[in-house]
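Predicting holo structure, zinc ion bound.
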Amino acid sequence: MVIKSWRAEAKRRWGKKAIRIQEDGQYAFLTWCGALEVTLLPTRDKAEELKKEVNITRCGGDCALNHEIIDLSDSRLSDHEINPPLSYSP
Ligand SMILES: [Zn+2]
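Done. Tokens:
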């Protein structure tokens, strides 16, 4: 059995970029508008739910809907990580 901390994995990936990493789980919901924020969720459904909600309520004043869901068990980088959106300002 592999014991893995998703939080630790999220920190490894985004610890330097993100201003906040919250909750815990395999699926990361990222908002790249303004500064990067990461919310971890246990299931993809929950992550999709949160994304839908934030797409309506917006993540902040300068929200450009640069939101995405990353499966932490998948080691490939997302498009947003390779090419952060223009609105992303660390
Ligand atoms: Zn946003």
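Helices lie at 6-14, 44-57, 79-82.
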